[in-house]
Amino acid sequence: MGIRFTVLSSGSTGNATVVDNGEAKILIDVGFSAKRMEQLMKERDLAPSSLDAIVVTHEHSDHIKGLGPLARKYNLPIYANEKTWDELNRQIGEIADENKRVLETGGMLEFGAMRVESFGISHDAAEPVGYCFYEGEQKLSVVTDLGYMSEKVKEKITDSDALVLETNHDVDMLRVGHYPWSIKRRILGDKGHLSNETAGEALCDVMTSKTRSVYMAHLSRDHNLMDLARLTVNNIVQERAPEATQLRLMDTYFDRSTKWDVLQSDSDSE
Q: In whole angstroms, how large is the CA radius of gyration of the chain?
C-alpha cells in the first residue's frame, strides 16, 4: 500500500495528523478533546481503536489537549522524549506504565515496513521534535512549531515526497495585529513559528524533483490567511525554482480534515 496520510486539523487551536501504511496507523499529536478527535477521525473512516501509537512533537496544549483521555480510553501507547515526558506527566493525567514509551530525539521506530524518525527543532518547549516517515523510497516529513529552519532540519526533511510544513503567519499582519509586543517577539523569534516567507525559502532548499505536495500547516487565525500563505509560498518557489512544476501547495484546515494523500513510488509515476 505504501504511505498515506491525512491532516485531521491544523492551526493555532489544535493539531493532529494520521499516517497509515496498511500495517500501522500512527497519530501525531492530539490537539483536541477526545470527543473532537473521534469526530475528526470519523471523517476519514478511522476509528481511534485502530491506532497503533501516538507520537508527540511537544507539550503545548494545541498538540496534547486530548492526549491523556484518548490514550486512556483506547489503551494507546504514547511516544515522546524524556524531557517532553517530564512535562506530559504534569499535564495529561495518569497513563499506564506500559503505554509510556520513550523515543529519544533522533531515534527511530519501526512499525512493519514503516519507519518513524524524530529530529530536533527550535521552539519554546522542553525538547520539541518533528518526524519523518519512511517506507521503501517513500518519505513524508511533518515539521511545524519551529522558529527557524536549521541546516540540520533541512537535511532531515530534504527529498520528501510530501511535507506538512508550518506557514504560521504573515509578518506584516502579525506586526500590526492586536497581540502584545512580547508575544509578537516570541512568535518572530528563533523559538517561535515560521512565517510564510521563511517557509517558502526553506521549501526551496529542501524540495527535489521527488517532492509532489506541501501542506501548509499551523496557520494563525489572527495573523494569516490560507490564500495569502499559498500566494507567498508559490511566488517564492516560482522565483527560485520555476522548474518545480510538479509541486502542489495544499491547504489544511482548523475545523476539518484533509483528504487522504497517498505517496507515489517511482514505479507508480512512470
A: 17
CA separation for the pair 78, 75 (Å, rounded): 10
Q: Of 105, 96, 60, 90, which is closest to residue 78 (Cα–Cα)?
A: 96
Which amino acid would we find at residue 75? N
State whether the Cα torsion 249-252-99-111 is positive or negative. negative
Instruction: Look at residue 267 in the predicted model and tell me its pLDDT.
Output: 45
Beta-bridge mates of residue 79 = 55, 101
CA angle 268, 157, 42 (to 5 degrees): 65
Collapse the DSSP code of 109 into the 3-class scheme (helix H, G, I; strand E, B; otherwise coil) and give the result: strand
Contacts 24+ apart (CB under 8 A), 149-156: 149/194, 149/198, 149/199, 149/202, 149/205, 150/121, 150/122, 152/119, 152/120, 153/119, 153/120, 153/121, 154/202, 154/205, 154/206, 156/117, 156/119, 156/130, 156/132
- All three cell numbers of 119, joined, read 529530529
- CB-CB neighbours of 117 under 10 Å: 18
- Percentage, residues of the chain above pLDDT 90: 95
* Residues in CB range of 257: below 8 A, 6 or more apart: 6, 7, 8, 9, 40, 43, 44
Report the candidate in 137, 132, 145, 144 with the shortest Cα–Cα distance to residue 106.
132
The whole-model pTM stands at: 0.95
Strands 4-9 and 100-102, bridge-based pairing: unpaired
Is-contact 211 177, C-beta < 8 A? Answer: no
What single letter denotes the amino acid at residue 181? W
| 247: amino acid identity, one letter | L
Separation between Cα atoms, residue 18 and residue 207, nearest integer Å: 22
Residue 115 has pLDDT above 80, yes or no: yes
Q: Number of H helices and number of E strands within the chain? A: 10, 14
